[in-house]
Amino acid sequence: MKILVVGKGGREHALIRALAESPGAHEMFSFPGSDAISELAEIVEVGSDVEELLAWMSAVGIDLCVAGEESYLVKDDGLANACERAGIPCWGPHKQSAQLEASKEFAKEFLQRHSIPTGGGSGVNTIEEAREVIGGKYPVVLKFDGLAAGKGVAVCMTEEEGEDFLKEVLVERRFGEGRMLVEEFLTGPEVSIFAAVVDGEYQIFTPARDYKRIGVGDEGPNTGGMGAVASRQLIPAELLERIEREIVRPTVSGLQSEGLPYRGFLYFGLMLTPDGPKVIEYNCRFGDPECQAVMPLVKGDLAGYCLAGAKGELDASKISFDEGWSVCAVAASAGYPEGSRSGDVISGLGDVGSARVYHAGTRKSASGEWETNGGRVLAVVAGGPDRQSAVAAAHGALDKISFDGLQRRRDVGILHFEEA
Ligand code: AMP
Ligand code: GLY
User: Which residues line ligand 2 (CB under 6 A)?
Assistant: First the structure.
């Protein structure tokens, strides 16, 4: 079948590879894609509005559109809404449902309406309202309710930090107009749960954990993700059952009861607090870099699974999950995340043995060499029957790769497990 994947990063590289390796002959297309993706899929050259992409899909006869990233789900009339109009199966939710990710206040109110465990929170418009809701009680978490390129969340330990962020966002309007969510500060290890949702049904994929900070020991600023670890054994079976009962099932039935169409991956960002698992965010797509860690664990016919799902049938028999562990170690460019450098030549890509290398920010130079293209550059993924062997394999493979200024975390797959 003809499959289009929307996105251009490491997550999409992993998705495209998994879909292309599914049984059957598949013609892969990617929009907007990347140089590395162009080796697996034809790059679609159209403008950035959804209607133009839709016209191209119809003309080419695309059988399945897969949303890798979220932005097109809420752009214009919404990617899935447009596909539905044209009769093209789409793996990714409608625009109105994708508000779960696009608006933090929408998500918080949805969680509260359905009594799904989450930190207390309420939306405010002004700094005065924010101060009233906070009531001088710190720490507190402040979340700008709009697009902020990942910089819209501040975990404020003191009133001084809180006041600074409130002024920046609600007075100086650093991110433009928009409301703010004032949220209760939660503590505990984080875990990412992914479900494939088809209307009222769902299937939970392999749980994962990502490493968001730039530095070892979770130090330094947030990034797009410096690595991830995934396994069915990441959390105990009873805990996963509790998450399913208290969080996943009520979310899926909440979507149904509110008439919010959903066919696609749904990401639950959870914190395992002393009072049990609580939702800190929803995303309407797979995680990046969790996808890179999870995809090698998925066996079977992912392409057929997504197509059936996009048409309204959750066919769990099409896929199965490896019981082992998978670790994804990211190499980021010099200067990231404050800035980032491009044009550093990458060596050792052919020396990683059986590890998989997904490209997030690379390009091919005029002379045909791979070089860095800013931000996170590569994700190196390897697995094993236990966590230790997967950790050794992934980090060992990344040891073979080098470029000037390479940044990585050697504690991916290690930190947050010592206590377990
Ligand atoms: P978000 O964009 O909502 O996922 O938030 C980014 C990061 O901020 C999360 O991965 C957490 O590490 C942290 N965070 C978000 N919400 C809370 C909360 N209520 N309490 C403590 N930390 C949080
Ligand atoms: N790994 C975090 C995210 O995909 O948003």
Answer: 210, 225, 283, 287-288, 290
**pLDDT tens string 241-273:** 999 999 999 999 999 999 999 999 999 999 999
What pLDDT digit, counting tens, does each position of 90-131 carry? 999 999 999 999 999 999 999 999 999 999 999 999 999 999
Of all ligands present, the nearest one to the C-alpha of 287 is: 2
Which residue's CA is the closest to the ligand 1 atom numbered 16?
280
Centroid of ligand 2 to alpha carbon of 136 (angstroms): 31
Q: Whose CA is nearest to atom 5 of ligand 2?
A: 287
Integer Cα distance of 262 and 256 in angstroms: 8
CATH of 121-183, one of 3.30.930.10, 3.40.50.300, 3.30.1490.20, 3.10.580.10: 3.30.1490.20
Q: Are 384 and 356 in contact (CB under 8 A)?
A: no
Taking CA atoms only, the protein residue closest to ligand 1 atom 4 is 281
Residues of the chain with CATH 3.30.1490.20: 121-183
Angle (CA) 118 124 128, round 5°: 130
CATH 3.40.50.20 range(s) for the chain read: 2-94
Q: Which residues line ligand 1 (CB under 6 A)?
A: 119, 141, 143, 153, 155, 183-186, 190, 212, 269, 280-281
First-to-last alpha carbon distance for the chain, in angstroms, is 44
Ligand nearest the Cα atom of residue 147: 1
**77-93 tens-digit pLDDT:** 999 999 999 999 999 99
Ligand in closest contact with the CA of 104: 1
If you measure from the C-alpha of residue 289 to the centroid of ligand 2, how many angstroms do you get, rounded to a whole number? 7
> Which CATH class name applies to 2-94?
alpha beta
Q: Which atom of ligand 1 is nearest to the CA of 269?
A: 4
* CA–centroid distance, residue 6 to ligand 1 (Å): 26
Instruction: Give bridge partners of residue 183 from the DSSP assignment.
Output: 121, 141
Q: What angle do CA 208, 210, 211 make, to 5 degrees?
A: 155
